[in-house]
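Repro case for the chain-ordering regression, as requested:
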Amino acid sequence: MSALYLLIGISLTVALVFLFAFLWAMKKGQYEDDYTPSIRILFENEFSEKNQPNKK
Amino acid sequence: MKTGNYTQYKTTSAVCYHCGESCKAEIVDFDAKHFCCDGCKLVYELLKENSLCTYYNLNNAPGNSPGVSAYSGKYSYLDDTKVAEKLVRYSDENFTHITFYIPKIHCSSCIWLLENLNRLNEGVISSSVNFLRKETTVQFNSKKIKLSEVAELLARIDYEPLINLDALEQKAPAKSNREQVIKIGLAGFCFGNSMMLSFPEYFSVGDFKGQENLSYFFGYLNLLLALPVFFYSASGFFVSAWKSIRYRYLNIDAPIALAILVTFTRSVYEIISHTGSGYIDSMTGIVFFMLIGRYFQNKTYETLSFERDYKSYFPVGVTIKENGKEVSKPVSELKKGDHIIIRNSELIPSDAILLSNHTHIDYSFITGESAAVKKRAGELIYAGGKQLDGAIELKVQNPVSQSYLTQLWNQDKKTTTEKDTTYVDKINKYFTIAVLSIAFLSAVYWLPTDSSKALNALTAVLIVACPCGLLLTTTFANGNILRIMGRNKFYLKNAGVIEKLSQIDTIIFDKTGTITYGSQVEFKGKPLAEKELQLVASLAAQSSHPLSRKLYTEYAKDKIYEVSEFREIPGNGIKGKVNGNYLVLGSAYFVTGTVKAEDTKSAKVYCMLNGELMGYFSFQNAYRPGLEKLVNTLSEKFKLKLLSGDNDSEKIHLQTMFGESTDLFFEQKPKDKMHYVQQLQKNGHRVMMVGDGLNDAGALNQSDVGIAVSDNTNNFSPACDAILDGSSLSKLPAFIQFAKSGKKAIITTFVISLVYNIIGLSFAVQGTLSPVVAAILMPASSISIVLLTTALTSITAKFLRLN
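-- result from build under test --
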């Protein structure tokens, strides 16, 4: 049964990774605007070597 | 450059390559493309120079026709450090971040161009667009480019940033929303994991012999998971409960906070003392569900604003003449005696005396009256009027904050005399009293025989009888109602409006812009041929007077003739030679030389062609379709009133439509409207005001439910409780009915949730509430309540033909 300690430890760690991924995405404001990026991705990068539209 | 792509847009009829409008008045040819005006051409040139023509490839004619032309120095007030400080998001020595609101953003080309600003000016480092909010955040090097230059750059490519007075006051309200989601996410995470850790306990009750350590391990992990939920996610409930207790009034959060507190303390005690496994999963679960409910209910319409006052309309800067020089200053620094210069179609920011000879002021913004008013030198002009003739000079009489218009807002807000408690609060009060007495009684019952069982029963009752069912029904029902109404283009400010909507007994309508939209032009007299109408349109195209614009848009088809000997006599009319014909348009006196007695009511433009009086164009308000039916349905249940700022030219027509018993009032000033609402409220009526425009702002604010009707919900509308799209006005009775049935749905579901509570209580009073029972009851009741309320409200909506 001691394997349970290990397994639960692992499962919680994995879950925590996802929790932090979520918190990070929230803090970065990824859920603020869910429309513009969908258009932005369609622009061609003609001048990609310089002055790419900078995402922030 | 992909020159080949361009040919496909070059259609035979001249359409502006930049903005897509048909070139009526003039055609500017440049680079083998047509442009409707020099403004469009200039933007094209600028973009071409900087090889930004992808703009035109992404969408056909994506540009904006330049409206108010930006003159250099228009934004110089932005370089005032006090102003800049309030607008700028972040700045250090080199870099500055600023977010501009740009109403003209409308397509993917806009996004593309605005995100490539750095190629137009090297001082701009980057820019990014939030399309839904129509905002652009620009990051620029403040050593290379000034803030005012950034604004000018945007204006030059016809993306004029809108900078209003209220932008100076509040910043970034979005934060709390983000925090709310984080709280939900955290609670969900803890709930899921704690449920997993609790399962072994449930499925092997008492079967942990030899495995106590494992059981303790689960317990402590659970405890760990409970901490962030208790201290962070649930903090809102505690704060709100504490507030309500301090103000000696019981809100729904108080018993919920008590239940969370008791559950947490008892769980901590059980786990640490190794006497049980606690109710951590139930606690985290209920917090999770309640937070979702709150979020669902509070998620409002980001792109709409319900709090606009005069500050949202006023410009930030104004041109002041000082020692013969023109300087741009923030409006808030205007003093009495300042000389200001107001250009064509700018708003007059404060009460001022006209120094220039004469001008026309459009007061439709304040009074709703559509005709422009003529003002002569020395007359007082109230703030809020829009200037229509060239540039004028004025002497400021009152600072902005003390002008006539702003005082409308500064008057005391809604006088809330009656108790502002909702029926949910009332239910909650009885519920809480009942629960507390049951808890107390069961504790007293057990105390003589078994003191530990007494404590057990007391806490169990509090845990199981938390009014979360009530909270869940109200939040989910309200959230769903808000959404369904939103889908029908009726946008409520918050859930509180639903209940107020259901209690209405009197409805007041404004006329212009509310039950009417636009205006209809009708020609009366000798019938005019199509060609002659073109002459009229050609002449009208030369003037910026509202009636001329209307004539132009109504009759201009394709060909616009050149006009010679054009003269405009402000306040009277226009004349000129069009295609060899001498044409005069204007007031009766101007055209015929005599004053007609009955002329003063509805707007009329007389027309004389080659010396012969042809007749007149009359401008009438067009009523919204379905208005008659709407009035009939509403008058069965509500008292109707009509308050109009306009004259009574249409009184007879309106009286027959609204019925004899309806009171109609005309020539009502904004203050009169507000006082009328107040008067009705004093007589115990619950008033709904349906209006538009600033002239209704006071009444909208004073009424119990103020609804702003707007034909374009992205446009400005005054502060109100709800915004209704003009096309949905006919659904108003259904909306009111829906709000009423929402209350029934909430009560029905609440009664059902009581069944769960009673089952739980029967265990609790006996002191035998095991974590398993709690863990089954809690999600079962929560989920069934959520499903039931959503279903009930959706079915009602179907029944009322709301989609």
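Ordering looks correct now. The radius of gyration of chain A is 19 Å.
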